[in-house]
Design a protein that fits this description.
By secondary structure, the protein is an alpha+beta fold. About 40% of the residues lie in helices and about 35% in strands. The protein contains seven helices and 17 strands.
Length: about 350
């Protein structure tokens, strides 16, 4: 029996509207779930979970009730209530199974307690609507297992008794692997498309970078030029030093740190260039960022004190010019008043005579 034509048309219209809405967002997008489980002993496991869309915290998992708490107002309306119920149920089953599996392996392989298991899993959605899932498992901060999405298989990152036990279980118990695949593949991709629609404003948020250039002198023979860029969003940014208008190539004299988060959900970056004092070159820090469009921020260093003195002198000269004009106006007014008074006295004397 074929479905009614009206239902097919409505479905096509829904898919068209959904795809057309999120397709206006350019680039690759990632949803990832971060799980940290602390195994204190065989009977006590504490698990924390965080969900991210790009770098936006969208939800956390309550470690006591295993329920989802939403961090953005648009996250909960993005999916029907029934879908959230299904996701919570799948997460509870997954966490119960994975905790039981790890505890069994730890006891069988005499793994000492306490230890920490971390998992980072999710999906990437590309501009052409293709997707890729990923999953990484860590043990006490070290890589443990990796999911090969191209071959749908798990591989060892750390060859230990526990990792081999875990790998053998995943290969032998296909039902659990299929549940994980549904959670991190189909569910993840479907949910992301809705998040891209409802969270478009958050994803398109842009904050202009604030750039400061200053110098430090660790020794008389060395001058460190520092370009500090902060308050920008989104995260991708390009920072370069220019010497006499030409970009300084990578080398031991150039050190650019990682992009670090600020408390206000923006980012900061610092680039340091080592130069010889009074080497005769001009230097400038160039910043390119999405919020600037096709423009670049170019903040020069060098002759800063001269520029400051020039500005102060210009200000003083301007003030002196204004004062001179005021004095001239007062002098002219008083001269005009004296002339009028003199003419008035002469007129009075003439009348008396």
């Amino acid at each position: 029996m074929q479905p009614p034509r009206c239902c097919c048309l409505l479905l096509l219209l829904y898919l068209f509207l959904l795809s057309g809405t999120w397709a206006t967002l350019e680039g690759t997008f990632t949803v990832q779930l971060l799980q940290t489980s602390t195994f204190q002993n065989t009977s006590f496991v504490e698990t924390e979970g965080l969900a991210l869309l790009e770098d936006i915290e969208i939800a956390t998992l309550d470690k006591h009730t295993r329920s989802i708490h939403f961090h953005q107002p648009w996250v909960h309306p993005a999916l029907p209530h029934m879908d959230w119920d299904n996701i919570e149920n799948m997460l509870r089953i997954y966490l119960l199974k994975i905790s039981h599996l790890i505890n069994e392996g730890a006891m069988e392989k005499d793994v000492p307690y306490p230890f920490v298991i971390q998992c980072r899993a999710g999906c990437e959605l590309y501009p052409n609507r293709t997707s890729r899932t990923f999953a990484y498992v860590g043990y006490n901060g070290q890589d443990f297992l990796i999911f090969d999405s191209d071959n749908d298989t798990w591989t060892l990152s750390q060859d230990t008794d526990l990792s081999r036990y875990f790998l053998a279980y995943l290969k032998n118990h296909t039902a659990f692997s299929e549940r994980v695949e549904v959670l991190f593949n189909n569910t993840c991709v479907d949910a992301m498309e809705r998040f891209l629609t409802y969270g478009r404003a958050a994803l398109e948020r842009q904050e202009l970078p604030v750039v400061t250039v200053f110098a430090r002198t660790p020794s008389p023979q060395q001058l460190l030029l520092v370009c500090h860029v902060t308050a920008f969003y989104p995260r991708p940014i390009s920072v370069a030093w220019l010497r006499d208008g030409q970009e300084v190539p990578p080398g031991p004299q150039l050190s650019t740190g990682p992009v670090l988060p600020n408390a206000d959900l923006t980012y900061q970056l610092r680039s340091v260039l080592a130069v010889a004092p009074q080497d005769g070159h001009s230097y400038a820090c160039r910043v390119r960022h999405r919020s600037l469009g096709t423009r670049s921020l170019l903040v020069p260093w060098g002759n800063s004190q001269l520029l400051l003195i020039t500005a102060l002198l210009a200000g003083l000269l301007g003030a002196a010019a204004v004062a001179a004009l005021l004095l001239l106006a007062v002098w002219r007014r008083r001269k005009h008043q004296r002339v009028e008074e003199s003419e008035s006295r002469n007129s009075t004397l003439s009348k008396e005579a």
